[in-house]
Amino acid sequence: MIGIGIIYISKLFVLQVYDPSYKFSAESNTRRKVTQFPSRGLVYDRNGKLLVSNQAVYDVMVVPREIVPFDSLDFCDLLGISIENLRERFVEMRVNMGKRKISSYKPSVFLKQLSAEQYGRFQEKLYKFKGFFVQGRSIRKYEYPIAAHVLGYVSEVGQGQLDKDAYYSKGDYAGVIGIEQTYETYLRGEKGVKYMMVDVHGREKGKFRHGRYDTAAITGKNLSLSLDIELQQYAEQLMQNKIGSIVAIEPSTGEILTFVSAPSYDPSILVGRKRGEGFLSLVEDTLKPMNNRALQGTYSPGSAFKLVNAAIALQEGAITPHSKFECDGTASKPIRCTHYHRSPIEAAGAIETSCNPFFYQAFKRTLERPGVKTRDGYVAWYNHVRSFGFGERLGIDLPYEITGGVPSAEYFDKEYHGRWIALTVRSLGIGQQELLVTPLQMANEAAILANRGTYYSPHVVKSIEGEELPDNFITKKETTIDPIHLEEVIKGMSQVYTGEIGTARYYQHDSIQMCGKTGTVENPFGDDHSVFIAFAPKDNPKIAISVIVENAGYGSTWAAPMATLLMEKYISGEIPRRHKYYETKMLEGDFINGDK
Predict the structure, then answer these.
(1) Cβ neighbours of residue 249 under 8 Å, at least 6 residues apart?
(2) What is the pTM of this model?
(3) Which domains are assigned to the chain?
(4) SS3 string of 237-292?
(5) Which strands, in side-by-side order, build the sheet including 31-36?
(6) How confident is the model at residue 362 (pLDDT cuts 50, 70, 90)?
């Protein structure tokens, strides 16, 4: 009996003094684990202006097994919900418990995102509602009602994301589209946890074990975007009541200065408790404002692609800078000339006047050179085109980029059973037919020409706090065209502004030498699209741009003045007085409500 007594005394000593785990377990009945959600990283523009910040909200949490009867009217009044809504929430909670989606022993979200004012009122009477407590977190605050397609938004994670990433728990939030999605792992930070002692009414009485087991949340990393928010704001104003896109790139770095998809929306409507209503209104909008046309819209490039065809013809020796082609009478076949100008005409003049017959003849010679089979000539043309980034993803740091399409020789072999010549695919010579590009790719084309044959993958993030940019954004890429051949193309682009019959001659700037190319793109579903690509200044370019206004007709009428205004705004900071008329016209133009 003495021996047994010694054993019991020893065991009790171990349990009560040496091993505190059982005591910790007992104490867990009176402690609460509270997740500390980190603040997401802030987002700035290239000039340090704050674009995205955080604001505090509070979730009402519930531990189902701890609930006791309470005054439901008082509860609903404090939280601003109806009795019916309260009942629905309890029914949903029971169903989820039955399906084991939530536990009766662990906290789960009962009501999301109370405002600070609601939290203050509820906190005063929280002791009356056993089983409920409040957990703080932050949500996004968008400082400007613009750039929605770049910024993205934050939403509750779905089951797929819960299964894929152990970081998330049910009720957590993560970035959706835009940089919020691409840079989620940088922006989200790291969660912390604290343990609080609570009384029988669920009121917090202090830290458990003086915070020994607490861990602090780590704030997400800040991002600096390459966007110029003032230029972005101006571009979105120009695109009001229009459908299309604007993309502007800094050629020397690949940094995106402006990225507009129109129509757009205010990202703030996807924040807070009314996010569901805002999301539904966007989804039901027939104009599809959530579609990212700059990244996912595909268009025939039209005459803007003539620059690439001219460069390839020069590179392949199919033409020289002095080669001339007739474009009137029978020479205006099989593709007719749509502009009045002198004839015959050389490459630079053809770019200035956008002469269709010249580019068909140049394209035909590229494919059907002496001693070269048509198919082999086409393969050479195809490889040159792909070196400009067409037909593939450029690797922008925004999700869901699409490739566009450049038809391969195999495609035409199948389509025409191996019997095809340059005449068969003639419309490719003027940027039509099966050729499809995105507005981002067209802006990149302008950047390549500005750089005389090189480019960096376009990107919207300029820097990440404490991190290096991915190598893809700092690695220079080269086309297959020698710079000497691009100089002739750039000469023609300059004449688009300065030539006597240049298609953008009315928008020439007194002190900034601009280079551009208009495009009027055939649209089988309605009016032609107005297209323009450009860069400026001609030497040491600071901005390259593409503008597409759907169903607006001639490129010289809408896209060209809009691109010119944006380049002027970025380079000199103001619009010349003599261009104010065009500015007013662009701002007031309405292609959605029928008032052009």
Answers:
(1) 255, 256, 257, 443, 444, 446, 447, 458, 543, 544, 545
(2) 0.88
(3) 28-42+55-141+188-225 (3.90.1310.10), 229-588 (3.40.710.10)
(4) HHCCCCCEEEEEEECCCCEEEEEEEECCCCHHHHCCCCHHHHHHHHHHCCCCCCCC
(5) 31-36, 192-198, 204-207
(6) very high
